[in-house]
Amino acid sequence: MADENKVINDSCDFCGCSAEIGTIITEGDDICEYELRGSAEKVEKDSERYDSAARSVSDAVQIQHHDTRDGEELVRRVTLKFTCTAEKMIFQMRTGLV
After folding, report:
1. Exposure of 43 by Cβ count < 10 A (0-12 exposed, 13-18 middle, 19+ buried)?
2. Which residues pair with 66 in a beta bridge?
3. Are strands 9-11 and 31-38 parallel, antiparallel or unpaired?
4. Which pLDDT belongs to residue 1?
5. Which of 67, 81, 83, 91: CA 20 to 30 A from 30?
6. Within a 10 A sphere around the Cβ of 81, how many other Cβ atoms?
7. In Å, what is the CA distance from 12 to each residue of 7, 20, 34, 49, 94?
8. What is the DSSP annotation of 47-77?
9. What percent of the chain has pLDDT over 90?
10. Which residues pair with 62 in a beta bridge?
11. Separation CA 87–CA 58 (nearest Å)
């Protein structure tokens, strides 16, 4: 029987730092928000790339775009709702949006 009060730590072999696993992956942390700015063409291209990356992680990801203008720039606020924290983290690591 597992000890429910046991804390699991993971440490890096390279730098020796450690973290409690629960502080890295927390339940309910499944929403990723970011902003894209630039010409409409650039924002569309970047948005398609990120949307595709999100769908490659989860077919069930919910993607919302909210577009506004800042002068000549298109500003797209993107909200991704994954089914779990691990999917969000995989997306962030694959895209560099950490």
Report:
1. buried
2. 77
3. unpaired
4. 45
5. 67
6. 17
7. 17, 12, 29, 32, 20
8. HHHHHHHHHHH-TT-EEEEEEEEETTEEEEE
9. 68
10. 81
11. 7
28/54 Cα distance (integer angstroms): 18
Token digits of residue 38: 């630039």
Q: How far apart are CA 88 and CA 96, in angstroms?
A: 12
Q: Is the pTM of this model over 0.85?
A: no
Closest CA to 39 of 31, 49, 47: 47
Per-residue pLDDT of 45-79, as tens digits, reads 999 999 999 999 999 999 999 999 999 999 999 99
| 10: pLDDT strictly greater than 90 | no
8 Å CB contact between 61 and 87: yes
Residue at 51: amino acid letter: D
